[in-house]
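Design a sequence for this backbone.
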């Protein structure tokens, strides 16, 4: 009887052990597949169209076209410089509000990466500058970015008025991985 109980306990532990090993084998590749990336984007606002909404004072919506360079310090593109362009829509009251953008990065080898960006903006220094922060996610890519997924966060600042063309920088960090 004692040997039979001992045998059943051993079988239970064997099943638990097999389950734990199976879960670990499934999770380890997923954890190893994510790579960190980081860098700085510098851009110039080439074109802006905006309009007063009229519901409250200084409520403005608009669209901006931006071009620039991205300097990568970490990840698949570390040490590289890519060109970038984006179309940004914004909705602000007294300089504070939200923005969304679609961005396309083009790398020296011809690969591209498309991203969707969602963020907020807040005036600083009496409106002479604007602080930005938000998040982004990969939406597609070609070449070495085909099949890549990723997401991250950013913080940055615009210097100058968007009405006359302004310059901005954004520091970003995130993770990227291959689609399963």
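Sequence:
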């Amino acid at each position: 009887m004692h040997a039979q109980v001992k045998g059943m306990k051993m079988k239970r532990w064997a099943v638990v052990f097999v389950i734990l090993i199976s879960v670990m084998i499934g999770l380890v590749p997923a954890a190893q597949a994510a790579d960190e990336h980081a860098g700085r984007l510098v851009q110039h606002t080439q074109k802006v169209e905006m309009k007063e909404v009229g519901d409250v004072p200084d409520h403005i919506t608009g669209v901006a076209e931006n071009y620039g360079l991205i300097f990568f310090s970490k990840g698949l593109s570390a040490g590289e410089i890519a060109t970038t362009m984006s179309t940004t829509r914004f909705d602000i009251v007294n300089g504070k509000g939200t923005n969304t953008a679609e961005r396309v990065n083009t790398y020296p080898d011809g690969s591209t990466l498309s991203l969707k960006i969602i963020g907020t903006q807040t005036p600083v220094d009496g409106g002479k500058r604007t602080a930005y922060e938000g998040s982004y996610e990969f939406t597609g890519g070609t070449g070495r970015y085909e099949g890549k997924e990723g997401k991250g966060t950013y913080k940055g600042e615009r210097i100058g008025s968007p009405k006359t063309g302004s310059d901005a920088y954004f520091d970003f960090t995130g993770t990227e991985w291959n689609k399963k």
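Confidence is low (pLDDT under 50) at residues 27-32.
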